[in-house]
Every structure is written in C-alpha cells, then in structure tokens.
Design goal:
Radius of gyration: 27 Å
Bound molecules: ligand L4NZOF2J, flavin-adenine dinucleotide
CATH topology of the largest domain: Butyryl-CoA Dehydrogenase, subunit A, domain 3
CATH class of the largest domain: Mainly Alpha
Largest sheet: 6 strands, mixed
Number of strands: 11
Strand content: 5-15%
CATH architecture of the largest domain: Up-down Bundle
Number of helices: 23
Length: 663
C-alpha cells in the first residue's frame, strides 16, 4: 500500500535546502553519511526493537538489555565497524546499558589517568571487552563532595599491595552504572593512605568478579541498588552498590599518572595539577553537553510534527480546524526549544574543540587553560541538561493528553534524561564551580588578563556603564547589540556578587551566604558563551540555499527568548530599559512567524528514523491517529476483553452494590 505523507504540505512550504541543513546538523558530510547509514542499519534490524520496553518487568527488561548489548557487540565485530561507527551504533540502539560506562568512563579513566604501561596492559583487554569496567566514585554518603569519600586504599609495603576497604556503611559505593550485575572491574576511587598519611582521593583498578563464573571475588559484596524513576527508562542500567572488605590489589593497579607510590612506599606527585584526578569527569561533562542537543532535538521533533498534525478549534465555515502549531502560544513555547536544540548542537561542537585543545596542551605540560575548561564543561553541562530536561517535559505538555502516553516516547525520554541534571555533578554544585571561577577572575582583574570565554571581562569598565542602542525592534537582529547586552548583564552580575562578597570578613562564609546570587551570575555567564558561539558559527560560510538565513532566525530566537525570560536580570542591572525589553518581544513574535513555514523541515534536518524517535506522535508521515488506535490494542491489558481479576475483585463488588440497593 502506498504510504501517505500527512506532513507533505508542511514540507512543501519550507524555504531552505533541508539536505544541506542535515549536513550542518551532523557536523560534516562524513558525519552525516555515517549517522545516516548506522541509524538505518539499527532501525532495520529487529534485534534492536525497543517498543516493548515500558511493559517488561525489571528482570526481563535487564535481560533484554544484556541481549541487545551482546547483539550490538556481535554486529560491531561481524561488520568490522570502526570505533566511530561502533559508538554511533550504540547511540542509535538507544538503551542505557553497562556499555555506556565501560566505553564512556572506564576506558577514558585509564586513558586519562593511567601511565603508558597501565594503558598498554588494560586498554587492549577493555577494547576487546575481555574485561568490562565501571566508574565507582560515588558513595552512599558522598557524591558531590569527592574529597569527602571514605573508601581507603592503604599501601602495604610488606606485600607491595593496596588494601581497598569500606570502613563504614556510608563508604559503600552507590550508584555506579554497570556495577550492579555486570562489571568485572571498576575504577574505584579511594583515599590513598601511605605510611599512615592520607594523600587524598585517587583511582584504582579493582577486579570485582571472577572472569570464569562471574561470582564476586573474596572481600567483595556487590548488587543492584533497585528500581529507578519511570517505566523502562534508566532501569535497563544496573546501578550498583559495592563494599570492600580488605581487598588486596597489586601496587601497579593504582592509576599513577597524577601521583605515584614507589615500591619503597614513597608518595610522589607528578608535575601535573592534582585536579587531573577529576579529568574523567571533565571529559564526560563535555560528552553530556554534546548529547543534550540529541535528547532535546528528539523531543522537539516529536512535538513539532504532532503540533502540525493536531487540530483544535477555529473551524471556519465547516473547514478544517486550526493546526495547534499556528497558535502563537504554542509557537512561543515550541520554537525557543527548537532554537535551543540547534544552539546546543553548536555549543557541543565547540566544547569538543575546547576539550581536544586542553588535552593537547596538557600533554605538552601547558595547564593554563584547565580552569577555563573545567568552568566551561561544568557550567555548560549544567545549563544544557537543565534546559533539555525542562524542554522534554514542555514538549510532553505541548502534545496535550497524547503526550502522556508511553507511545508518544516522551515519558521515557524524560525519565531517561532527567538524571543528567544530577549525575556527573549536580547542576547547582557545578554552577557554584563556575561562580568560583568568575569571582577569582574579577578579583584578579588588572593583575591577570582574562582570556577565552571570560575575555569580555577585559572590557569591564565599558560593560559596567554601556547603554543599549536599540531603537526599533529590528535593531535587536544586530549581533553586536545582542552580544553587548549579554556581556553587560554577565559582567554586571559577577561584579555585583564580587562587591557583595567583599563585605564579608570570611570569603567562604560570604560565598555560602550569596550562593543563590552567584548561581544566577554563573547562568548569565554560561548563556553568554552559548549565544556568542552561536553568533560565531554564523560568521562562517554555510552552504545550501537558505540554510544560513534559517540559522540566523534560530540564533535570534534563542538569544531574544533568553533575554525575554531573564529580563529581570537585564532590567535590574540597567543593561536595557523596559522599552528595549518590549521591542525585543516584538521582534521575537515576528521571528516565530518566520520560522513557522520551516518548522517541519527544521526538525526533518535532524534526520531521525522512526525507530530512533520511538514515538507515534513524531512519526515521519504524521499518520498519528490510526497508529495510536492500533497501538492501544497491543497493550497486554487488552489481551482479554474481561480483565484478569474480574471474578475476584469486580464481580463481588457489583453484586454487593445490588444487594445494598435492594435494602
Ligand atoms: C544516557 C546517557 C546519556 C548521555 C551521556 C552520554 C555520554 C556519556 C557517557 C557515559 C555516561 C553515562 C551515564 C552517566 C554516568 C554518570 C557517572 C557519574 O555520575 S560519575 C560521578 C560524578 N561525580 C561528580 O561529578 C562529583 C561532582 N563533584 C566534583 O566534581 C568536585 O567534588 C567539586 C564539586 C568540583 C569540588 O571539588 P573540590 O572540593 O576538590 O574542589 P574545590 O571546589 O575546592 O576546588 C579546588 C580546585 O580544583 C578545581 N577543580 C575542581 N574540579 C576540577 C576539575 N574537574 N578539573 C579541573 N579543575 C577542577 C577548582 O576549580 C578549584 O580550583 P582553584 O579555585 O583552586 O583554582
Ligand atoms: C542515574 C545515575 C547514574 C549515576 N552513575 C554514576 C556512576 O556511574 N558512577 C558514580 O560514581 N556515580 C554515579 N552517579 C552518582 C552521581 O554522580 C551523584 O549522584 C551526583 O554527583 C550528585 O551527588 P549526590 O547524590 O551526592 O547529591 P548531593 O550532593 O547529596 O545533592 C543533594 C542536594 O544538595 C545540594 N548541594 C550539595 N552540595 C551543595 C553545595 N556545596 N552547595 C549548595 N548545594 C549543595 C544539591 O544541589 C542537591 O540539591 C549516578 C547518579 C545517577 C542519578
């Protein structure tokens, strides 16, 4: 039967070259080809089916995840996929699994914190999956406060071993993904104790389970921590609990890039900053930022397509009702999210560049950009994950009642995504790190020249007193006007915090007292980074008919939407007047009208298969209603017309009501 495209009329309206935009979204023609090929491969293979996840019991769900992970590995090996292709395949399989932590944290931790010899020994085993690793840092009692971890690694010079021990209940490792049921090895973070002295937290490679029968090794108690938020969702992951009872490991299983313990029991610190022990977190925060655009664009694709299909009210002379996407309120909720998805895509690309740059510098013993890289990864991880989690939930609401159905894909997407606001650093804790960086920068003005993302602070005198030059709504389309408003707001908020801090005798007390304001200053700084990198992106040549124009519209929507949402900041710091705010809002409305005819094409440019989207509401052809109707009948509750439990619980009730009525 011929497939009808219910969204064809929308696609015909678009004013730009969608194929060219697909390449911009993917990052390059090569990245597009790879993504397109691998996503289709996964979508066409029934072994990767995922539409039954929310109906399975935890045990069945987990076993199914194990099957899929093994099947994915077999596919990777059989097809001789490259590392890049394999990573894409795991991405499109779209099921959180122990492999995320193995490839995403265990391998990077060895690469970043292991010596050359340690890498040569452990990486080949990990690459072939002859060992499976997890990242065991967080404990029952401490997650955010890494320096507060209690697990100990005490050097025994007699045997040349470390004794890994959990001295208290609160020192039990708690949360590591893959730990609960699968990992054979962990990078366990523990306090390094040498000669009775505590040298702080370091990573150790510890074998947890037998490579023969998977049973825990002596001294290891390990299991899963239990069900998490949502059906299906992150419950495919075996987040685990782990206790060590005086577990002995050879000395050379301490990750020794940052500091070493010699055979004689001497502690030595390398020439690199101690903070490199936290290096894996910096790496993963960067990948989480890149991932935010994927999750948000998925939700936006679903909500945009459905908003074009859904009609409600407004019929004229018996004609069709209004598509809900034509309501200005729908547009003002949806289009900023569409623009955010693009903004996050570009900031993810830029952050990857920054991370590569800092890694190369570290290899050449240049540590100068590490504080900025830490502040950027921490702050952008916080900002993008918060906006994405909130955005997915907004997309669910944008889809009305049907958005609440699991078959919309949105509840599961939200449940899987929302812990990103907590893992890899609680978002508030991370913004406080950015605030520390900002306060240090302000306190050193005149002594140390701010560079990179904080470079705008060199113009602090101007930014503290400049006046917005916007006179007409269109003036807000000028990138310099936008940039200056955002720079002035960020600078003024940071300087105000620094001035307030100077009123405290004890700076730490002051920091704690003013922490809510400091978080707002950090948000302003991070939003400025995203805005400025989006604007920079548009200064490059971008091929394809109308592509650049569409991106300019999206950039302006993203920026003016932030200005509108945070207008309290802009007004109270005197960066703009109420008149400027009102003109910005006028401009925003006009931009929504410009994006409207292109909305469907802009989400098509994500190039998501129906399999990956996993949503009836977001399906490419927009044929939503028959699919929803059919899916309802697939629910196990509809296996029988009369439900199980009728005779036990419904019939007696009905009979009793009849007797009561006769009385
Ligand atoms: C479904 C999955 C979807 C998408 C993901 C995609 C791919 C990712 C792949 C796999 C991931 C999958 C699932 C996620 C798994 C999540 C795993 C985890 O959660 S692991 C545990 C993470 N834990 C944390 O993040 C803990 C947060 N806490 C900290 O980082 C630190 O404790 C702290 C808050 C930074 C404080 O540390 P500390 O007390 O030591 O620091 P100070 O504030 O005193 O600072 C001292 C000094 O150090 C600087 N600094 C701190 N951190 C760093 C750093 N990382 N790098 C560089 N420098 C750092 C700080 O700025 C201070 O500098 P100074 O002021 O002295 O100049
Ligand atoms: C799904 C999931 C997967 C995870 N995977 C792993 C893993 O693989 N490996 C691993 O080691 N860990 C993992 N974690 C743990 C995760 O990294 C921690 O939960 C996270 O770092 C937050 O720490 P916490 O739980 O101690 O939160 P807490 O710090 O206890 O946060 C509680 C509240 O206190 C606030 N707060 C804390 N400190 C401050 C402060 N200084 N100032 C102001 N407010 C503060 C926070 O903002 C938050 O509101 C995972 C967690 C989740 C949810």
């Amino acid at each position: 039967m011929e497939r009808v495209d219910h969204l064809a009329h929308e696609r015909n309206k678009s004013e730009f070259d969608v194929d060219a935009m697909k390449i911009v979204w993917a990052g390059s023609p090569h990245a597009f080809e790879l993504s397109d090929r691998i996503s289709k491969l996964v979508a066409s293979d029934p072994g990767f089916r995922k539409d039954n996840r929310t109906m399975l019991s935890r045990k069945d769900l987990f076993k199914n995840t194990l099957r899929k992970a093994a099947y994915a590995w077999k596919t990777i090996v059989d097809l001789h996929l490259s590392e890049e292709e394999a990573a894409k395949l795991r991405f499109y399989v779209d099921e959180p699994a122990y492999t995320d932590l193995h490839w995403g944290m265990f391998v990077p931790a060895i690469k970043g914190q292991g010596t050359d010899e340690q890498q040569q020994k452990w990486l080949p085993l990990a690459y072939k999956m002859q060992i499976i690793g997890c990242y065991a840092q967080t404990e029952l009692g401490h997650g955010s406060n890494v320096q507060g971890l209690e697990t100990t690694a005490t050097f025994d010079p007699q045997t040349d071993e470390f004794i890994i021990h959990s001295p208290t209940l609160t020192s039990s490792k708690w949360w590591p993904g893959g730990l609960g049921k699968v990992a054979t090895h962990a990078i366990a973070y523990a306090r390094l104790i040498v000669g009775g002295r505590d040298y702080g937290v370091n990573g150790f490679i510890v074998q947890l389970r037998s490579l023969e029968d998977h049973s825990p090794l002596p001294g290891i108690t390990v299991g899963d921590i239990g069900m998490k938020f949502g059906n299906g969702a992150y419950n495919t992951m075996d987040n685990g609990v782990l206790q060590f009872d005086h577990v002995r490991i050879p000395r050379d299983q301490m990750l020794m890039r940052v500091s070493q313990v010699t055979r004689e029991g001497k502690y030595k610190q390398s020439d690199v900053p101690r903070q490199l022990v936290y290096g894996t977190m910096v790496y993963v925060r960067q990948t989480i930022v890149a991932d935010a655009s994927c999750a948000l664009s998925r939700a936006v694709c679903i909500a945009t397509r459905y908003s074009a299909v859904r009609r409600q009210f407004g019929s004229q002379n018996g004609g069709p009702e209004t598509q809900v996407i034509d309501y200005k309120t729908q547009q003002s909720r949806l289009f900023p999210l569409l623009a955010s998805a693009y903004a996050f895509r570009f900031i993810g690309e830029w952050l990857k560049w920054l991370y590569t740059d800092v890694t190369q510098r570290l290899q050449a013993n240049d540590f100068s950009t590490l504080p900025e890289a830490h502040a950027c990864t921490a702050g952008l991880k916080s900002l993008t994950t918060t906006a994405t989690a909130d955005g997915i939930e907004e997309c669910r609401k944008l889809c009305g009642g049907h958005g609440y159905l699991c078959s919309s894909g949105l509840p599961e997407l939200f449940a899987v995504y929302v812990p990103a606001c907590t893992y890899e650093g609680d978002n508030t804790v991370l913004l406080l790190q950015v605030a520390r960086f900002l306060m240090k920068t302000v306190s050193q003005l005149g002594v140390k020249k701010p560079v990179g993302t904080i470079g705008y602070m060199t113009r602090v005198d101007h930014l503290m007193q400049c006046r917005c030059g916007v006179q007409r709504a269109e003036d807000w389309l000028n990138p310099s006007a936008l940039l200056e408003a955002f720079e002035a707001r960020a600078a003024r908020m940071s300087v105000a915090c620094a001035q307030n801090l100077s009123n405290f005798d004890n700076p730490e007390e002051g920091f704690a007292e003013l922490s809510a304001d400091l978080v707002e200053a950090a948000v302003a700084h991070c939003q400025l980074i995203i805005v400025s990198k989006f604007i920079e992106k548009l200064q490059q040549e971008i091929p394809g008919k109308g592509v650049k124009q569409q991106l300019e519209v999206l950039c302006n929507i993203y920026t003016l939407f932030l200005l509108h949402k945070h207008q309290g900041d802009f007004l109270s710091t005197g960066c703009i007047t109420p008149k400027h705010a009102s003109l910005a809002n006028d401009q925003l409305r006009s931009l929504y009208s410009q994006v409207r005819p292109n909305a469907i094409a802009l989400v098509d440019a994500f190039n998501y298969t129906d399999h990956f989207l996993g949503s009836i509401l977001g399906c490419y052809d927009g044929n939503v209603y028959p699919k929803l109707y059919e899916a309802a009948w697939e629910d196990p509750l509809n296996d029988s017309v009369v439900p199980d439990g009728y005779h036990q619980y419904i019939r007696p009730l009905l009979k009793q009501q009849i007797r009561t009525a006769r009385l």
